[in-house]
Amino acid sequence: MTAPAPHCNLDRLVQAMGSRDIEGLVVTQPYNVYYLSGFNATAHKSDEPRPYAVVVSRRAPDKPVLIVADYYLASFLTLPTWIEDIRPFRAVMMPLDLAPNAADIDRFIPQSGRDAAWIANARRQYAFDMASVLNRALADLGLAQAKLGFDDVGGGLRLGIGIDRLRDAYDCLMDARAIKTPAELRALERASSLNEKAIRRTIERWDPAMTWADLTRVYGEAVLALGGFVRDPGGMVWGHPPGEDPAITLQTGAEQHKVVAGTNVMFDCHGTLDLYCWDGGKTWVAGGEPSPSAQRHARATAAVAEDLLAAMRPGARISALQARARETYRKAGHPNAEETVIFFHGLGLSHMDIPIQLADGRPNTDWTLEENMVVPMHLLCPGGARDRWWVEEVVHVGAGGGRPLFSWGFEAL
Question: Pick from 146, 177, 208: which residue ends a domain?
Fold first, then answer.
């Protein structure tokens, strides 16, 4: 089986390492490991120490080392990685009451894969703990005394790396992940398409007896049927206070009031397809048409969205986009543009994918768009159940402006 090309933007990563004075990277967080290697490990939860790592040298970024627990070795026979140097270590499945043995690795190698060259290398590199494999990999890459960036600094401490050599590489990875490769753009397009289909299927199944918890469950069922994934407590994000309450809330998954006819439902949906995130949606009026006030909000929001698409070009600052959107709301007749909520974030393997700090240590709060970023724009007119209005479009930033990833425009669902 042919190994896939990496999703990662290696040139951008090397640039980010250089600007932060990082000579080598040791990446252990699951999304970053997937980003660099394509390896999506099964069985681990978010707060467990990771039994895998990718080691990258700034001087030879095309020759990384992938370190894995021995029980993961066979995974690469089914799902190959572009990384050729895979090194296993003896992990939790091997007994503590028996002495470690170099032949232990053979338990995890299927007969069908025993002749593969990378398997032979893995057998030679096998060691009895992760720190030993890591230190050997660092030495082989010329990083034995180098300044090392860890995306989990605590992981570096647990692996015995001296504090004088440790650097926080969170922003280094986010700097690279901010600019999407063609493979990532295709993954995000597929994810957005799935979300759009799942929202339409959810609408088709609505009936006036449904509660918000029911609607969230139905959305999750639609996602699962389409091959996607949502996490607890559900894929729908906005809360929907009943009556005239204009409060901005997020749902908890326990809401039991009903989705009555005429309610403005703001679909802001999160989930993943092949680990890449989707986000967004827009407003649907359950079983009816928008109220007169909601229609005014809808027209103004559509005008803002169209204008922002044209403005979302490389070099645009977030604060400038927000000010522009608010002015467009005023021109479109919104009675209180200061109350509208306008915000942006990155999207990719997370709903961040933007550095928190720049290479010089300055906060990256008012960040700047760059070509091939993927940035959801959020437009909310707060109000009661029949007044509120919402559009969230996922936008691919290009030299000619933003390209929407949804196909359905900005009018009501």
Answer: 177
Crossing angle for the helix pair 212-225 and 182-204, to the nearest 10 degrees = 130
Q: Which of the four pLDDT bands, split at 50, 70 and 90, describes residue 292?
A: very high
What is the residue range of 309's domain? 182-404
Tell me the two tokens of residue 277.
């995130």
Question: Could you tell me if residue 412 is inside a domain?
Answer: no
> What is the C-alpha separation between 222 and 193, in angstroms, rounded?
13
Q: How far is 245 from 175, CA to CA, in rounded Å?
A: 40
In this structure, the answer to whether residues 296 and 392 fall within a common structural domain is yes
Has residue 161 been placed in a domain? yes
Residues 317, 198 share a domain: yes
φ, ψ of residue 314 in degrees (nearest 5): -55, 135
What is the C-alpha separation between 101 and 103, in angstroms, rounded?
A: 5
Copy the structure tokens of residue 159.
Answer: 């692996």
Of 125, 150, 177, which closes a domain?
A: 177
Residue 174 CA to residue 13 CA, distance in Å, equals 9
Contacts of residue 143, Cβ cutoff 8 Å, sequence gap at least 6 = 23, 24, 55, 57
Mean per-residue pLDDT, 189-209: 97
On whether both 189 and 41 belong to a single domain, the answer is no
Residue 333 is assigned to a structural domain of this protein: yes
Q: Can you give the pLDDT at residue 47?
A: 79
Single-letter amino acid code for the residue at 358: L
When divided into structural domains, the chain yields a total of 2
Confidence of residue 1 (pLDDT cuts 50, 70, 90): very low
Q: How far apart are CA 278 and CA 376, in angstroms?
A: 10
Residue 188 clears pLDDT 60, i.e. is over it: yes
Asked if residues 88 and 73 have their Cβ atoms less than 8 Å apart, the reply is yes
First-residue to last-residue Cα distance in the chain: 43
CATH code: domain of residue 97: 3.40.350.10
- Are 149 and 169 contacting, i.e. CB atoms less than 8 angstroms apart? yes
Residues contacting residue 63 through CB under 8 Å, at least 6 positions apart = 57, 85, 141
Half-sphere exposure of 394 (CA within 13 A, CB side): 25
Clarify whether residues 203 and 115 are in a common domain: no
Residue 5: predicted pLDDT:
59
Judgement on whether residues 194 and 164 belong to the same structural domain of the protein: no
Q: Check residue 48 and give its pLDDT.
A: 83
Q: Is residue 4 part of a domain?
A: no
Rg (the chain; Cα; Å): 24
Distance from chain centroid for Cα 41: 16
Statement: residue 99 has pLDDT above 50: yes
